[in-house]
């Protein structure tokens, strides 16, 4: 069967998934793809300063952001897009829940079949490419 754009991959270069709290902070960073200062991030969350620093440190240690010093503060720039992260999470859940690692197999199972025909797989790939271009 043909390979689709959603073929499973190592979880984002073997990065560990983000915790719920880390994900909240990462969403703020994703909203500023050109980079956001630690001061700006700190102002958005009620946690203690040490907690905020620890969360940002963990995100950077997991490899989701690039960190550069800018005076007294740091600037966080995303290294993984939100779309890439969500895609990897969905692939991981598909494998864990259904034992399926390929999108065509998932769609076939959803339709009550073992696999898609070559023609169906090609149509699906075209549709995915069109959706990715939007």
TrEMBL record:
Gene Ontology BP terms: negative regulation of DNA-templated transcription
Alphabetical UniProt keywords: DNA-binding, Transcription, Transcription regulation
Coiled coil: none
InterPro entries: BlaI_family, WH-like_DNA-bd_sf, WH_DNA-bd_sf
Superkingdom per UniProt: Bacteria
Pfam family, any one: Penicillinase_R
One GO MF term attached to the UniProt entry: DNA binding
Keyword Lipid biosynthesis listed: no
Family label: Belongs to the BlaI transcriptional regulatory family.
Protein name: BlaI/MecI/CopY family transcriptional regulator
Species of origin: Candidatus Caccovicinus merdipullorum
Upper taxonomic lineage: Bacteria, Bacillati, Bacillota, Clostridia, Eubacteriales
